[in-house]
Amino acid sequence: MSERAFAVWAPRPTRVQLDVDGARHPMHRDADDWWRAEVPANPDSRYGFVLDDDDTVLPDPRSARQPDGVHARSQLWTPAAPPRRWPGRSIEGAIIYELHVGTFTEAGTFEAAIDKLQYLVDLGVDFVELMPVNAFSGTHGWGYDGVLWYAVHEPYGGPDALLRLIDACHDIGLGVLIDAVFNHLGPSGNYLPRFGPYLSTGSNPWGESVNIADAGADEVRRYIIECALRWMREFGADGLRLDAVHALVDTTAIHILEELSTETQALAAELGRPLSLIAESDMNDPRLITPREQGGLGLTAQWDDDIHHAIHTAVSGERQGYYGDFGTVGTLAQTLTQGYFHAGTYSSFRGRRHGRPLDTATIPATRLLAYTLTHDQVGNRATGDRPSQNLTSGQLAVKAALVLGSPYTAMLFMGEEWGSSSPFQFFTSHPEPELGRATAEGRKAEFAAHGWDADEIPDPQDPATFTRSKLNWAEVTEDGHARLLQTYRQLIALRHDEPDFADPWLDHLRVDYDEDARWIILHRGAFAVVCNLGEAAVGVPVTGETVLAWDEPTTDGASTVIPGHSFAVLRTQVR
């Protein structure tokens, strides 16, 4: 046992005691509202803080480990070894694979995920993007209701296992991105307001907003930024996906995203490897991905839901809700060539103008992520059904060709590459019965208001909802699934191997289409990615050597006939 320094920012209480393994110690308050004490502790001591006259021992807001859950004492943690060094890689133009640790494998742990990494390399993946791994209440959930952002969710394996996973990824050339949620806190285990003004007077769809611009915000901003940098410095992550940045309401002159971008760039220089920040945003605002020296916020990339909506609606025919402005082949062509569909144009879903045009001459397409689905676009459907449960294999292949044949950075959601039949449903495990009941009832009421039978909506608290969402890896070798998987591998290999598919500039992308015949062609240098979105075979005005196809096309010399719900990649020029 040796002397250990403890500190906590707590401007609200008038007295703070430190509890280490059951022994109480007074703490002294400095002028900056940080309370400090140096007391004997073991390397794995359990500790927490007691505020004023409430005898409850609260976990450390910056806890590194919560072995007994978010309501219990924190545990001191020191990594056995720092993350292994590796040169890193850029995300721009890469293939990113989004996965949820708890449902990616049957065991649902970091260790179990390591066993699947070679599969991802064979698929052609460049980066793994982990849905949130911060500590949240309960044993399983999506992770977006975290309350101790510095700690690693213990049922996944805790911080040591996360380090092993990231090292294992780097050992075989995979980068790692971590989904970080800084726009709200979960409803169970959020003790931060007891310590200080972590929350603002505003709110967002998930609860009270985090205080990044009101009184006391300076320390809260440091809390966020230091947490973000910690994933990259202490765990070796190669970047972050920042959840719903449009909910980070910042009225200060230097937006917190700009501040984070600046510090991430400095950390990248210190570590000698690329680090990336990817925003999830529904604002269609190119300033997010515009360099800071040009007046932007300087983030590396952003998710682009317009591309998803344009592809999904054109292929599937769905038009409800926020899909209402999408669905035509022309809309798809416009979105693929401009990056955003709503770019200062009227959005019927929002009832107002939305977005801002992307300067395609200065911002490369690789700063936008294209995808056929994400955890949101599956899990936020009423029953969590995947496109593979509603579309033909050919339609799934067409969607893959549109994403992987585009100039955008591409992202897959776990299992899409073989057309997984497992849904990805919304699941929770709140230990408080009243909170669990409210979550389930709220979910049913939300979709009942949109015409769904409430009895069809899965109960998030039912353990079977979680179990149903796990991938069934036995499907990978089954005939229909294996064919789609092979097509994904071939599309990704083509993207990696042919320089024409690495051209990041939308000004170089030419798209032809026929609305009535329902075909579209993406011209990528010497290649043409030809997709038939309809059921009937169509002739398209392009010919060339077939490099890859879902169903083999035929030619009459002047045109190429593409079977229904199929695609072909043609080499149209001889080098």
Automatic annotation (TrEMBL):
Binding site for substrate: 241-246, 305-309, 375-380
Enzyme Commission code(s) on record: 3.2.1.141
Subcellular location: Cytoplasm
Catalysed transformations (reactions): hydrolysis of (1->4)-alpha-D-glucosidic linkage in 4-alpha-D-[(1->4)-alpha-D-glucanosyl]n trehalose to yield trehalose and (1->4)-alpha-D-glucan
InterPro entries linked to this entry: DUF3459, GH, GH13_cat_dom, Ig-like_fold, Ig_E-set, Trehalose_TreZ, Trehalose_TreZ_E-set_sf
Active site: D243 (nucleophile), E280 (proton donor)
Protein name per its UniProtKB record: Malto-oligosyltrehalose trehalohydrolase
Annotated source species: Mycobacterium adipatum
Taxonomic placement: Bacteria, Bacillati, Actinomycetota, Actinomycetes, Mycobacteriales
